[in-house]
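Notes from hallway chat w/ T.B., transcribed later so I don't forget. T.B. wanted the structure written out for a chain they're using in a teaching module, and asked if we could keep both sequence and structure tokens in one place. Agreed to drop them here.
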Amino acid sequence: MRRHLYLILSLAAAMSATHAADPNVNRVALVMNTPGCMAFWDFVKREPDGAHRFTAHVPVGATNEFALDAGNYVKDYWGEGREATYEDFPLLGCGPFGDAIQIRKESDASFRPFLFVPRARLQDSPIDIKGAGKSVTLVVWAIRESGNHALAGIWHEGTDLKLKEVAPIKKVERGQRQYALFAGLNKPGSACGHVSENGASSFLNKYALHKCNSGDVSPEVPADSPTEVLDVSWQCFAMTYNHETHELTGWLNGKDTGRWQENVRKVIPSIHNAWLQDNLRRQPGAQPGEDPNFPKDQFYPPPEDQPIATKVISETADERVELQKFRYTRVKVTQRKATDGTWATTGRDLADVRLNPWWFSPDSIYTPPNDGTGGPFTIGRVIHSGKSVGFTGWIGGVAVFNRALSAEELAKLAAIRSHVIISK
């Protein structure tokens, strides 16, 4: 009996020492112990039997481990190219949590592989974050070799855009966007968070435009760099949507550095017009430039109750032009002096819009009909109407949370990239 007890205690001590010596176990625990973590793929955990697909760490008691299939969306929607397999995702053999997959610069235009959880296996699951009053955080540890497109998320962009540069698509589907994290999009290398209220387009543009871009940008690092270079090149991309504040924020390495888009009328005219139509509709009677057919649910109405700063651009005896800064916008305001000496606003025009954080006015993440038409959760690429290569590089971890993480929590997760754990 005494010997048996000794063996048990020795085994327990050995396991404890092994865990203490294995930093990957501690890193996984740090992610999973962060409140709200619904799924975390570290590309180490796999199915014990069968195909040995990658599976997610999930909360205690959860039954869905979100095994990842390999797919090629060009074959699925154009009927071109070959099937994808796990062999198309080389492993690094190391990474923030012990391993990582490579998203390669595929030269075959008919081959765009990704890893995914089919909709049928995630419908109404904890990562199927949708509806009103819902917050979400998506974190991806990656090394960006090139590209600015999708890292992970539920973001089926649809195959109905009829892009001129690609051949007709055989399987046409409407967009089923919910939430996703990109490696920059229009600001390559930034942490770009995306949410959609309708699964489709925004502001009568053909693309979804509710997105944020971190001010900081990740570097480009060749995927075949020496191990010692890759080991210090990990970046922590993250996006948060906080439904209480309506803010969508991009975080790179735990920092939510701000970004503004200047001259929005010229650069993103769809956003400018959505803001303008909201302003014109608020005024009594038909206004010059007002489009009575512009849908109200596509207005862009960030709060502009009280400016936080005002700068006089020009002033004469009768007219004054100010640039009024609000949290999410900078507005050019024209004022005329009345006969009693007071100034009255005669015109407002959107000059600049804040991209980080971004104001998401709908506060409702798209809810697909409960008929299986929603999008899958994908890693490395998303389904869309084009065949661009997208992001290339290494992905070493993907985590989904059902709440907006704080700056302190994201800083702790970001520290994992440099193999330094911040204690609680």
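Follow-up for T.B.: The chain has seven helices and 20 strands. Might be a good example for the class.
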